[in-house]
Amino acid sequence: MWPLDAATTGGDIPVIVANDLALNAAERRRRAGLDAPDLPRVESASVRTQPRKAPVPVPTPLLSALDAERFDFGGPLRHTSPLPRRHVEDKELTRFLKSHVDRTLSDNVEPPPCPHCGSDNTRLASTKRARSPLPQFQCRVCARLYSRATRTPLAKMLRKDILYAFLPLLSQHRPLAHAAEELGTTPEIVKAWVRRFREWLLLLDPTGNFERRVRLGLKAPRPLMDCPHCLKQVEARPHGFKRTRKRTAAELKRRLFRCTGCNGFFDISIDAL
């Protein structure tokens, strides 16, 4: 055997012949009473290798900055709002994630592409067993072992018992503490899961269509709006809901904004948001 780097230009590599299979075959023919050629013993030789390219690692997708279009400013953004919070689940996102979670945790032994370098030249290394609950595969290019859960949020996840209850919450704009209390875990764990699932969604859907639907624990940025006072398009800071002495916020249904340019207040109907 000889060491080979991940990237080599190829060429003739000197080797030591420890066991010549041709001599062994000739000796077996002689013991069987058959004719066999008298082959010379070779102690050294050379092996010609083909040029190899270093595998290109699959990069981790970068999360872009949050945009205001991701959030519904017609509903309450805080739990102290006078209007009831509306937690609406995006069922299409939940179904999309659930199908990929089921596929990742399946016992299918068909080797998937390598999650490290993206190569399709892979093989089955081991089936499901006690120490490895998922089938293990090996890449023939980068020689690394992996499973279907490698480089996904499911890798080394300790609380898989709350996984399917977590998926419907991803599309709901609610605080991390609320989701953690409902799932029986901590806000820090929920925050880490949200980030990992956002990165995984970008790998599953590079267009970012499904990743833009994740709202759990995310802070809504200030939207760009036309201020009626300074007549400029500036960032507007949400400032609750409009209410008067005689009419409540639920009756008026108008959201207040404060212009970051002139500090003037203006309101917009929540139906127009």
List keywords for this structure.
about 270 residues; 4-stranded antiparallel beta sheet; alpha+beta; about 15% strand; single chain; about 20% helix
What does it look like?
The protein is α+β, with helices and mostly antiparallel strands. The chain has 4 domains: 11-49, no CATH class; 57-105 and 155-221, no CATH class; 110-148, no CATH class; 224-272. It is built from 6 helices and 9 strands. It has helices spanning 21-31, 91-104, 163-166, 176-183, 187-204, 249-252, and strands at residues 11-16, 44-49, 122-126, 136-139, 145-146, 224-226, 233-241, 254-259, 265-269. A 4-stranded antiparallel beta sheet has the order 6-7-8-9, with no helix packed on it. A 3-stranded antiparallel beta sheet has the order 3-4-5, with no helix packed on it. A hairpin with a 6-residue loop joins strand 6 (224-226) and strand 7 (233-241). Helix 4 (176-183) crosses helix 5. The mean pLDDT is 87.
User: Helix tally?
Assistant: 6
Using only C-alpha atoms, the radius of gyration works out to 31 Å
Structural class: alpha+beta
Main beta sheet: strand number and arrangement?
4 strands, antiparallel
Q: pLDDT below 50 for ≥5 consecutive residues: which ranges?
A: none
Shape from CA axes? elongated
Strand order of the largest sheet: 6-7-8-9
Strand content: 15-25%
**Beta strand count:** 9
How many domains make up the 3D coordinates?
4
